[in-house]
Specification:
By secondary structure, the chain is of the alpha+beta class. The chain contains 14 helices and twelve strands. Helix 6 (about 115-130) packs antiparallel against helix 7 (about 135-145).
């Protein structure tokens, strides 16, 4: 009796805390999708410090918002915290694992699907790359190429797999660029060759000379990543929409200083996260969900059969079995948490531009209102500069460079608020 009451109180307390934190997270997500990146970042900062089951997710969200806000130091720290937890051992310890079995998968520390983990490493590498820390960037892009699980066929396919090489083209492409800037031409050529092996249509984008001569790199996030869906009983997670449902990825049109720049041969989407989400190699197999669902169904069937017997059944036993079965199935609901800020694709556009300031406009003619304009983007006399664009209908600009988050506070010249 006391155990039941105590357990109920604990669950109520947990539910209250989760719902309150979730409301704050939802507000941050809403702000992000209307282009209020600074507001989203500020709301996520305290959430990202809480060592709870959403620690990784909230730090990934914070990293995305800070990157779009050009607060690169905050983005780097957030992505790094998420990376460290994902790659540490003992995070989901026995006590937390037991709670997962008893209550819900949402009690378990969220680490994301394999494609989400690959994107975490990509964005961490991108921030390092923007800071010209090419050694660190290379390590992050290399970490994005972790081995994948190629699951077999048959009834026990979920338990049998072999490891295969990653087909994450985005990381190979950036790996080649890092190797060029680190003075490793042979390694760079191997990385670019791997891009062409996987995607022959990206031959121009992966051209060694083009990337070597580039001094202005545009990284453009477009669209929305996949959402998790469930079956009718909520036990099996799938991903929607599919690439077929969403249609082809539209291609960008680029203008520099008011003049159209032909990038049609290079501005192709290196990845489609909607497609990756459909690939079993990029999905996590969580057998405990299926086990709990089967056990729950068995308890319901058993309780119903027991109640229907000719002997005099104990109604409390029958009800207990049925109630327990429904409870077991209820806790087998798929974990629908996801990194909402992921795009559908990331365009990598290498340019060779004269040193000085330039106005850049990116638009997607097939998508009305999908454009963004920046003025005064500065290309240095030597080296390379990287600019990041998150395409949202609510943030068309024009924006002036440098953005407020990059303006250092100086005596008599405080940073301008966004």
């Amino acid at each position: 009796m006391f155990l039941t009451v105590g357990l109920g109180a604990l669950l109520a307390l947990i539910s209250g805390c989760v719902s309150q934190e979730q409301v704050k997270a939802n507000h941050a997500v809403e702000d992000y999708f209307v282009g209020s990146f600074r507001q989203s970042e500020n709301q996520l900062k305290p959430l990202a410090q809480k060592p709870d089951e959403n620690y990784v997710l909230n730090n990934e969200r914070l990293g995305s918002a800070a990157l779009a806000n050009y607060d690169l130091d905050t983005a780097e720290a957030a992505f790094l915290r998420a990376y460290e937890v994902i790659n540490s051992t003992g995070v989901n310890d026995p006590a937390r694992a037991a709670a997962t079995v008893l209550f819900s998968e949402n009690v378990k520390v969220w680490k994301g699907e394999p494609f989400e983990r690959a994107m975490l490493n990509f964005y961490l590498g991108l921030v390092y790359y923007m800071h010209h820390e090419y050694d660190n960037a290379r390590a992050a892009f290399e970490n994005a190429l972790f081995k994948l699980r190629d699951y077999g066929q048959g009834g026990d396919a979920s338990d049998q797999y072999r490891q295969v090489e990653s087909n994450f083209v985005l990381a190979y492409l950036m790996l080649g660029r890092c190797d060029q800037r680190l003075g490793k031409p042979d390694d760079a050529r191997k990385a670019f060759a791997r891009v062409v092996d996987l995607r022959p249509d990206l031959r121009t984008l992966a051209d060694y000379r083009r990337n070597e001569q580039s001094n202005m790199l545009l990284v453009v996030d477009y669209g929305f990543g996949p959402e998790k869906m469930t079956s009718r009983d909520g036990t099996i997670a799938g991903f929607r929409p599919t690439p077929r449902e969403e249609g082809p990825i539209p291609l960008p049109v680029l203008s520099v200083d008011g003049r159209r720049v032909n990038v049609s041969d290079a501005a192709l989407p290196p990845i489609d996260l909607l497609a990756l989400a459909q690939d079993k190699q990029w999905q996590s197999i969580d057998t405990i969900r299926a086990v709990k669902s089967v056990l729950g169904t068995g308890m319901i069937v058993g309780g119903t059969a027991y109640a229907a017997t000719d002997r005099r059944p104990n109604p409390y036993v029958a009800l207990g079995l049925i109630a327990g079965g429904f409870a077991m199935k209820a806790t087998s609901q798929a974990d629908l948490r996801r990194w909402e800020f992921l795009p559908r694709t990331v365009f990598i556009i290498p340019l060779a531009a004269p040193a000085g300031k330039h106005d850049v406009r990116i638009e997607f003619p097939r998508m009305p209102g999908m454009r963004q304009t920046w003025t005064g983007l500065e290309v240095p006399p030597t080296g390379e500069v990287t600019f990041y664009f998150r395409m949202e209908r609510g943030n068309v600009g024009p924006y002036s460079w440098p953005p407020p988050a990059m303006v250092k506070s100086e005596p008599g010249n405080p940073a301008t608020p966004q």
